[in-house]
C-alpha cells in the first residue's frame, strides 16, 4: 500500500499496521468478523466498518475527513479486531428497508445498487456483526440469531418483485421500481389531499351550526 502524500505520521503508522495485518490474514477462518477499512489515498484516514447484513458493500467511498474529499479504497475485510484504534468499528454496512428505499431521493444508481443486494453505510448500531462464515455474533463473540437479516431479505425480495412485475425487457432495471414508487407517492398524496378536504368541510359544517 502506497503512503498517501498528505498523511500524518499517525495515519502512516496506522496504515503500516493495517497492511501487516492484511498480509497475514487467515481468510479461511469462518469465526473472523467482517471488519474492513477504507483508506483514503489522499490523506490516509481510515474508515472502519463491519457488516450487519449480508450483501455487497462499495469498494470505494468518499473520505469523510473534513476538507479532504479524497477516494477511500477498501482493504477487502482482511483485518482483525486487534488493529482497530478504538476497539470497535464506528460504522456498519446495512440493507435499507423497503420504506427507506421508497423515501430515498430517486436515483437510478441508488436503486440499481439496492436491487442487486447492495448495502449502505451508517454509524454502528447494536445489531450483531456478520462473520466470514456467514453467522452473526454479538460484541462478546457469542453467536446469535439476526431477525433484521431475515426481514431485510424478505423486503429485498419484495423490492425485486416490484421491479420484475413493472419492468419489461426494453426498460433499464430500475425503471419499473421508479414508476412504482411514483405511483405510490401519488396515491399517498391523493389520500392526504382527500383527508384535508374532508377536514375543511367538517370545519365549515361546524361553523354553520
Give the SSE map.
Layout: H1 9-23, E1 36-40, E2 46-51, E3 60-62, E4 71-74, E5 91-94, H2 98-103, H3 108-115, E6 120-123, E7 129-130, E8 136-137, E9 143-144, H4 147-166, H5 175-208
Parallel strand pairs: 2-5
Antiparallel strand pairs: 1-2, 1-4, 3-4, 5-6, 7-8, 8-9
Helix pairs in contact: 4-5
Keywords:
elongated; three-stranded antiparallel sheet; six-stranded mixed sheet; 5 helices; 40% helix; alpha+beta; 209 residues
Uncertain ranges: 168-176
How many H/I helices?
A: 5
Q: Sheet bearing the most strands, described?
A: 6 strands, mixed
Identify the overall geometry.
Answer: elongated
User: Using DSSP, what is the number of strands?
Assistant: 9
Helix/strand structural class: alpha+beta
Helix content: 25-40%
Q: What percent of residues are in strands?
A: 15-25%
Order of helices and strands: HEEEEEHHEEEEHH
User: Please, what is the average pLDDT?
Assistant: 82
Strand order of the largest sheet: 3-4-1-2-5-6
What's the end-to-end separation, in Å?
Answer: 79 Å
Count structural domains: 1
Radius of gyration over C-alpha positions, nearest whole angstrom:
23 Å
Amino acid at each position: 500500500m502506497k503512503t498517501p502524500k498528505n498523511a500524518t505520521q499517525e495515519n502512516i503508522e496506522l496504515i503500516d499496521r493495517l497492511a501487516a495485518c492484511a498480509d497475514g490474514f487467515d481468510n479461511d477462518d469462518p469465526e473472523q468478523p467482517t471488519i474492513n477499512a477504507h483508506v483514503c489515498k489522499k490523506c490516509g484516514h481510515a474508515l472502519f466498518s463491519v457488516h450487519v447484513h449480508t450483501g455487497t458493500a462499495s469498494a470505494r467511498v468518499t473520505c469523510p475527513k473534513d476538507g479532504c474529499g479524497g477516494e477511500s479504497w477498501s482493504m477487502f475485510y482482511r483485518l482483525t479486531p486487534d488493529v482497530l484504534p478504538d476497539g470497535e468499528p464506528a460504522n456498519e454496512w446495512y440493507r435499507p428497508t423497503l420504506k427507506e428505499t421508497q423515501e430515498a431521493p430517486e436515483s437510478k444508481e441508488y436503486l440499481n445498487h439496492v436491487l442487486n443486494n447492495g448495502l449502505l453505510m451508517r454509524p454502528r448500531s447494536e445489531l450483531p456483526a456478520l462473520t466470514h462464515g456467514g453467522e452473526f455474533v454479538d460484541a462478546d463473540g457469542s453467536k446469535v440469531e439476526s431477525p433484521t437479516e431475515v426481514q431485510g431479505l424478505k423486503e429485498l425480495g419484495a423490492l425485486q418483485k416490484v421491479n420484475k412485475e413493472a419492468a419489461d425487457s426494453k426498460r433499464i432495471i430500475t425503471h419499473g421500481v421508479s414508476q412504482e414508487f411514483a405511483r405510490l407517492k401519488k396515491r399517498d398524496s391523493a389520500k392526504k389531499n382527500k383527508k384535508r378536504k374532508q377536514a375543511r368541510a367538517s370545519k365549515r359544517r361546524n361553523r354553520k351550526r
